[in-house]
Amino acid sequence: MKIKTFFGKNVKDAMNRAKAELGDGVILFETKEIKQTLKDRDENAVIQITVGAEMSPESKVHKIIPETVDQTPRYFNGHLESILEKPVVNESPSGSVGSELAALRAEIIKLEEKLSQFGKPEFFYPYSQVYEQLLASGIKSAHAKEIVESSLQKTSDESVSPAKLLGLIKNEIAGSFTKAAEASEGSEGKPRTIMLAGPSGMGKTTAIMKMALNPEIYGGRKVAIITTDCYRMAAAAQLKAFSKVSDIQVFEVRQAADAIEVIRELSRLDVILIDTPGRSSAGEEYTDMLLNYRQTIQPDEVYLTLSAVTDLDDLANLTNPYSALKATGIIITKLDETSKPGKLVSMQRDLQLPVKFVSGGQLIPEDIDRMSRELIWTKLLMTI
Question: What percent of the chain has a predicted confidence (pLDDT) above 90?
Fold first, then answer.
């Protein structure tokens, strides 16, 4: 990780300069006001920021294709699209190959449209319209059906307007999120221990730094961070840089017994946040390691950390290795990167766990919020 200081007229201006040099993936560690003119910055600059960024992947021998980029068409019709975009080689003068492929594509489109209608629930208006709106927001069809059927049982008034019906449903969703996210307190007389777990790339380390400093969460309290992720150099460097600019102690441990010893030494603190390594494909050894930490430390909370861009079809496979941890809640990251925040409704229902915190953006510590009714309305329900 590269740590560097930038200056600007305001935070946005300084961040733009940082992104221009280091790329969009910069992480903001510190901001402060500058009262004296420095030679290496503009005279009008009054804000200094400290940021960190991963080393450019261009320096690596092989180009890494992001997992989120689908390199192949999802449907057969997509394959036809890619074929038809290419020039036809050795085609007969009549152009029959291209014509036949175009006709086949048209027939498949019609077939897909017909097949998409099977299995759809039949709701009368305006319930049918609200059902479609829930689907468009990212909520799974099964959950959208449950929600609409529930509202249908409570009010089967055909004269109700779509806006009023959607308002009733939004209130019900907001209520379920708020009740599930009620704060719980740890044992009195010892630090509150919170362990984050989840697949790689979900943003656990960044979420922990935000939680530690955000005044609405644990900022202002006596906080320390324990990392068990000794496998990624980038994670260790990120936390070390964070510790320097935040004055929050970070301890690196390699086994559960070491973590217990550190926790005993930090008995006068208020909160201890525990970072764990992630795996894209978790094996039995990895699961046993996490379970050993869980059973040895016995944290007050275990939060499963997931990205809002996670495909709901992959959710079960991604989270199955963590079922033995008996998570007490979910942290959703990268909410700013999805156009379908309704996914949160399906994540909560599929996992049967409350969403505790929601994070979106790279700013530390601003871009994280404790789940609340207001947050549900602004981040989720306003988009439906």
Answer: 20
Strand partners, 298: none
- What burial letters (b/e) apply to 32-44, b meaning 16+ CB within 10 Å? eeeeeeeeebeee
User: Which CATH architecture describes the domain 192-372?
Assistant: 3-Layer(aba) Sandwich (3.40)
Q: What does DSSP assign to residue 63?
A: P
Put the strands of the sheet holding 47-53 in their side by side order: 2-8, 47-53, 27-33
Measured from the Cβ of residue 87, the count of other Cβ atoms closer than 10 Å reads 6
Distance, in Å, from the CA atom of 363 to the CA atom of 368, rounded to the nearest integer, reads 9
pLDDT of residue 54: 67
Residue whose C-alpha is closest to residue 301's, from 276, 278, 274:
274
pLDDT score, position 64:
33
Contacts of 245 (CB under 8 A, 6+ apart): 29, 30, 50
Sequence letter at residue 19: K
Instruction: Quote the CA–CA distance of 211 and 155 in Å, as a whole number.
Output: 41
Return d(Cα 36, Cα 34) in angstroms, integer: 6
Chain segment 233-260, per-residue pLDDT in tens = 666 778 888 888 888 999 998 889 999 9
- What is the distance between the alpha carbons of residues 88 and 95, in angstroms, rounded to a whole number? 9
Decide: 213 and 359 in contact? Cβ < 8 Å: no
**DSSP codes, 74-138:** SSHHHHHHHHHHSPPTT--TT-HHHHHHHHHHHHHHHHHHHHHHTT-----TTHHHHHHHHHHTT
What pTM did the predictor assign? 0.64
Domain residue extents for the chain: 2-57, 127-180, 192-372
Predicted local confidence at residue 331, as pLDDT: 94
Q: Which of 88, 54, 375, 360 has its CA nearest to residue 237?
A: 54
